[in-house]
Amino acid sequence: TDLEPLRLKTKEGLALLNGTEGMTAMGVLALHRARHLVGVADVACALSVEALMGSSRPFRPEVHLLRPHPGQARSAERIAALISGSEIGSSHADDFEHAVQDAYSLRCAPQVHGAVTDTLDHMESVLTREMASVVDNPIVFPDLGEVISAGNFHGQPLAFVLDFAAIAVAELASISERRTDRILDPARSGGLPPFLAADPGLNSGYMIAQYVQAALVGENKVLTHPASVESVPTSGSQEDHVSMGWGAGKKLFPILDNVRRVLAIEVLCAVQGIEYRAPLKPAPGTGGIVELVRDIVPPLTEDRSTSDEIEAVAELIGEGRLTA
After folding, report:
1. CATH number, domain 12-318, options 2.40.30.10, 1.20.200.10, 1.10.3720.10, 1.50.40.10
2. Is the pTM of this model over 0.90?
3. Per-residue model confidence (pLDDT) at position 97
């Protein structure tokens, strides 16, 4: 390689360590992954709408024009596009006795997913501003001939948005688990077998997979406790208020991993639920996702370990292949 090691000059090493560079870097990486997961959540919801024979009406654009949060409109548009042209949906589109109102986890998905998007938009604006900032201390002003000790290194703006992002992204898993539970419950699934088992009673289907979701959602509830409220004085109380932004950034990544796996389980269950609706066919959009998943995971016809299959779909999500 022709790359030469960077030789730091006077004060440059301290400048790279002294400010919010680490928090900013974690924030940018987390933001990229979180935005992708919102899109995956929209895909998972669309699959669940098909599996549960839900209504397409809550995703119509005129609904979301009346509450113009931009993220809400984006999620509604994606979900509507994915379920457009579905035989499953058209089979009951005008049957108001089928279900007057779907459960919140279906019909309120744009409002929930969209709120996550809007939170991430705010996070992006803070990160963009921070990347263009001087966050060193003390700050050298050569033109003024002055060195000023100030507080631009303080990570509070980043700590807040990292904590806020953790709370927001965790809700993608929370609502996903609720949709999955509905698919697996014969009392609420609209005709699907218990736990999607081919032979209920003898086989447990995806029952244990939903246990995994519940465990991951529960773990996220602990991890979303804000780090930014935990200031502890150091350095003889000279540094008597700190942001704890590093802690906020570090715990955001396991939350993202948990969300990815929760969504993977919803996708697996929804795909199997859609197949139980045959001979009715899903929409071209959701049907393409069904085919993509079935290329790597066969239908669950009898009990087997699903751990590797959950990981396979989670990897599909991580690779960016399971998107609208």
Report:
1. 1.20.200.10
2. yes
3. 61
